[in-house]
């Protein structure tokens, strides 16, 4: 019995040691870079349009044609469920309650609210505001009808080139950046769908090049030069009292961008997309964009010889609270020479279309 007991203890020690080694290897394993497979779903000859996804369909609205004329106010829907480039297509003419429909526009903002599409702002063919500052448009896919949401009280000035995001937990909308009266703005506003009131939040620390809303936090990217950028973030929450003492505050994380340190170069017209690998691990995918912005880039050859970027980057966000990755990151930060990777940049690795294997980190 003693020999058997000793053998059991030895096996238990081997298993325990193996688990410890495996856990250490898992903790030490870097969370980036990520690998992605790109699949073309559809093409459309439009500029400055909006694309919003509800379920397995992407809804396209507004924008300009190749000849510079505004597109009409139809809704174009493309199925993206199969990811094989064979998505079904449908076009919905503009129909609204009491004949109210949004006018054709460009440089507007869109987001989804539950199972509906929200449109705000933009410009008409004369580069004038497409709507007054109090109007939001809501489109119901099942009924294929438009309706208006009219704000009460004060509202942000008519905007274009901005972004809007829906916070499902609070049933409110966050507006950020864009242009007012031809000038870039740092403004951030919150709209409460229940009260139909706009609430002004603190201005962002810098003008936004791209923004995204993830799990209750608004992230905004800015750049001061070719070799320096910043990530700013704020938790809008809900506004009960607009006194200065109760408003949320912005936090800034700076990052370099040069050959010695990985990071994206400043760009305009880029996309910032939230992605997750599961278990509370989230990233922002920062892709493509143009170098044509003299206020950011000092190198004139960017415009003439290399007008667009083709690279894609991932920014690791802080792990979700009470998640497996939160525990893992806390351990990483406590181990010498190992970091959680929060707010670190890595260039996205693009795999051939035949590769479909996914891995969570």
From TrEMBL:
The record's Gene Ontology biological-process terms are: glucosinolate metabolic process
Keywords of this protein's UniProt record, alphabetized? Iron, Repeat
Spell out the InterPro entries in the cross-references.
Gal_Oxase/kelch_b-propeller, Kelch-typ_b-propeller
Tell me if Transcription is a UniProt keyword of this record.
no
Domain of life where this protein originates: Eukaryota
User: Is Iron set as a keyword in this record?
Assistant: yes
Looking up SUPFAM superfamilies in the UniProt record yields: Galactose oxidase, central domain
Q: What is this protein called?
A: Rho GTPase-activating gacHH
Q: Which organism is it from?
A: Fusarium beomiforme
Q: What is the lineage of its organism?
A: Eukaryota, Fungi, Dikarya, Ascomycota, Pezizomycotina
